[in-house]
Amino acid sequence: MPGPKDIDGSVGVPTFYGAELRWQREQAGMTQQQLVEGSFYGYSHLSEIERGERRMPLDLAEHVDRALKTDGFFTRRCEDVRRARRRGHAPYFEQVLEVETKALSIEEWSSVLLPGVLQTEAYARAVVEATHPLESPDEVATKVNGRLSRARLLDGAPKQPLFWVIMHENVIRQPLLGAAEMAEQLAHIADSAQRRRIVPQVVPGNAGPHPFLTGMTAIMTFADAPALVYTEGLHSGEVIDDPALVAEYRRSYDLLRAFALSPGASLAMILSAAEDYRNGTQPPWLERG
User: Per the database record, which ranges form the HTH cro/C1-type domain (predicted)?
Assistant: First the structure.
């Protein structure tokens, strides 16, 4: 039976922390199951921490320090890991960063901006600079890199999570960038759809009133945990786990599909919009000033 996969602690703070945790545990001659005994956590949770995939809760860090006699090392450093993990992201987005990689499906609605996981560097930079006009170039770069790092959700194998995104037509017609860069952005989304990494749908501009008229919403489902909903405003976000509320969001999202074009027709619209940008034929009222 092959041994555990090596952890490259040089990748970042979470993997360094996880590699040190595994080393200390193995030096003590303990299995993951033995180490978590007496805590409120399972060995699979500890395994994900060792791989740098999950944050260390403070109470578990305190338990580990007692069990391994590490003089408070993991308790003192767990906040460093938390800050490193959310670098480039707002604190309220931290829970989403942790759970989205474990989701079976993510179904997102975007009425104003393209989903962060689908943004090119140019688009992400334009959004960050517009919403954080007083931040330094280094701070902007950190936020942009944080957004781009989430694209790994669509690059791994197996093809999970299933990412279903419904966008309003205004999102793809609104030129946040110059024509060439907008064409590149839409081609990137089309490529993700053609590679079967996302399922896109577009709500036409003439669809009229429909569920989710405002805001951004994502519904996440999991194999071993209840579904969650994440909603976001300009400078705030909320994770909703109340089953009744999650069911309401689920129902509204299903109704929204009825207002959207089919995935095939939506992809054709995205490709057509990209070609319009390349040819400079987007409607005059949408031309970049």
Answer: 21-73
Residue type at position 254: D
The reply to whether omega before 91 is within 30° of 0 (cis) is: no
Q: Where does 91-286 sit in CATH, by number?
A: 3.30.870
Give the pLDDT of residue 12. Answer: 60
How many residues appear in the chain?
289
258-272: per-residue pLDDT in tens?
999 999 999 999 999
What distance in Å separates the CA atoms of residue 166 and residue 259, rounded to the nearest whole number?
10
Bridge pairing between strands 105-110 and 162-168: parallel
pTM: 0.73
Task: Locate the domains of the chain by residue range.
Answer: 13-85, 91-286
> What is the sign of the dihedral through the CA atoms of 76, 17, 48 and 245?
positive
Q: Which residue has the tokens 């194999």?
A: 223
* Domain covering 13-85, topology: 434 Repressor (Amino-terminal Domain) (1.10.260)
Give me 182's structure tokens: 């907008």
At which residue do the structure tokens 């600079």 appear?
Answer: 129
